[in-house]
């Protein structure tokens, strides 16, 4: 039943832990802009205007659930940052890291994972800081990128199509809610697939977008809507999904390569074609509504997943 899925999504820690964002933003908002900030809190990356282009900044800490596999955690610390830059329509330039570990072996595993990802996506890791005598493992990575045109989280319009693009060529990573769609690909393929987002930004094909991250596909759609101050009706059967993963797991899973975006209906087919040319499955999964509610539908059932007049994910409401 959809009511059970609603509860599972709303209770999922990958989503519920986003509640803490608003507390920090409330304190830091006064120092968000001293004259150069174009986009700050609320997007996948911040944007600073520099001449004819934008400099993009993002930072991610790796969820403790991945710490049991330090090499994979190191790999993901790079991957999530790279996705944040491409989600904004940009290309990454360089990374830095801040890593804590409890043993040399653990530190070496993290570093190997970071190196593998940097080699995969051809992005330099240029500096960092280590805590070799820490009590707990911790991994944070920051990134800088550049863009000519931006894809933002706040550009949705009522009547836009809601599209979801996911690379289904992968497999579940152990027991994690992670779909590994990148580690087995060549650099040429992996970077070429991400360049879809740059093409969409340069051609101004989409009105808004986010990368699908730890909150899962439905949670990420919720964040997009919350930031835009709008709602959506989503057909669960239209979400690209592998055959061997149950829906209630798939909608919570980090897909490695996954983006949700909105566009004018007359542009949807062209957006889908751009992804399909790079072997990415993209589908129209719903439409944007004015009522600030995220509705999900399946088999004749409908439930409200979020009502942003009273619900909050990050608290960064449009």
Summarize the model shown:
The chain has 9 helices and 15 strands.
Please supply descriptive tags for the structure shown above.
single chain; 318 residues; alpha+beta; 60s Ribosomal Protein L30, Chain: A; Phosphoribosyl-aminoimidazole Synthetase, Chain A, domain 2; 7-stranded mixed β-sheet; 6-stranded mixed β-sheet
How do the strands and helices of this protein lay out in sequence?
Layout: H1 2-11, H2 13-16, H3 21-28, E1 37-39, E2 46-50, E3 53-61, H4 70-87, E4 91-100, H5 104-121, E5 124-131, E6 138-147, E7 161-166, E8 171-172, E9 179-180, H6 187-202, E10 208-211, H7 216-228, E11 231-235, H8 247-250, E12 258-263, H9 268-276, E13 281-289, E14 293-298, E15 301-307
Parallel strand pairs: 4-5, 11-14
Antiparallel strand pairs: 1-2, 2-3, 3-6, 4-6, 7-12, 7-13, 8-9, 10-12, 11-13, 14-15
Element-by-element helix/strand order: HHHEEEHEHEEEEEHEHEHEHEEE
Tertiary shape: globular
β-strand number: 15
- In angstroms, what is the radius of gyration? 19 Å
Number of helical segments? 9
Report the sheet with the most strands, covering strand number, pairing sense and barrel closure. 7 strands, mixed
**Count of discrete structural domains:** 2
Strand order of the largest sheet: 10-12-7-13-11-14-15
At the first level of CATH, the class of the largest domain is Alpha Beta
